[in-house]
Amino acid sequence: MKKLFLVLIVLSNMLTGFAQMDSTFILSKYIENADNADLLNMCELTDIQVQKIYCEDTLLRGKVFNIMIKEFKNGKINSTFSSNINSQKHRYPIVMNGDTLFCEFNFAEKAGFGDSTKSVTVTFADILKKDKFKLKIGYPGLNTLVEFKGKSNYSLRIANSCSSNKMKVPINTEYPILAYSPPFDTGSNIKSYCLLGEENIHDWYQKFNVKHYYAIYLKIK
To answer: Which of 6, 66, 101, 221 is deepest in the core (most CB within 10 A)?
Structure first.
């Protein structure tokens, strides 16, 4: 009976591990939650927005966080950006004193879960200048800078809802985590960003007539 009970515990742990590998939870935090009021005021006056995503899941070791950004115009994808990060280890040749040495670069250590990584934080910081917004994507070990079109009423925020900062993100699948968009105009002097988050981000043009926006996706692979 004890052996049977032990086997059931092992099977339960294995199944739990497999279930967790299908998806993970991501937390999002906006600069509004910062305790430093001076920093918040500075960001608002300079049109700077900051969002952070946080994940703590050691079952993801060896996987990277690849970021993709898709620009939507009139309901169709107009352009696509990808950070092109994969979990493969890369070797780069370095010539020193006539000898060729190879430096190994592990992207899982820089932009995901390495062998000793306990958590991952990716920071999205943008600044708007003359209808151009520069977005810096900050990984634990590397940074990417991209530039897109924007306006003063565009907001960088959670894509799915304003009611929770916790998202269940599938593994090996593109999943929208953030959006950079104008608000939905209700037509009654009320404009809302949160109403957008209650619907699928791909349907914002059909349901809310949002003609231009960006969807930021995460693919854990």
So the answer is: 66
Distance from CA of residue 206 to its chain's centroid? Answer: 25
In this predicted structure, which of 10-24, 87-101, 190-204 has the lowest mean pLDDT? 10-24
Q: Are 175 and 169 in contact (CB under 8 A)?
A: yes
User: Which residues partner with 171 through β-bridges?
Assistant: 220
Backbone region of residue 122 per phi and psi (left: phi > 0; alpha: psi in -120 to 50; beta: other values): beta
Q: Give the span between the Cα atoms of 117 and 56, in whole angstroms.
A: 9
What pTM does this model have?
Answer: 0.80
Question: Which sequence spans correspond to the domains of the chain?
Answer: 25-220
Residue 23 CA to residue 17 CA, distance in Å, equals: 11
Q: Rounded to whole angstroms, how far apart are CA atoms 220 and 136?
A: 19
Report the alpha-carbon distance of residue 151 to residue 45 in Å, rounded.
15
Is the CB of residue 139 less than 8 Å from the CB of residue 122?
A: yes
Query: Any alpha helices (H) in the chain, and if so which ranges?
Result: 2-22, 37-45, 107-111, 204-208
Structure tokens at 40: 């918040």
pLDDT tens by residue, 84-115: 888 777 666 777 777 777 666 678 888 999 88
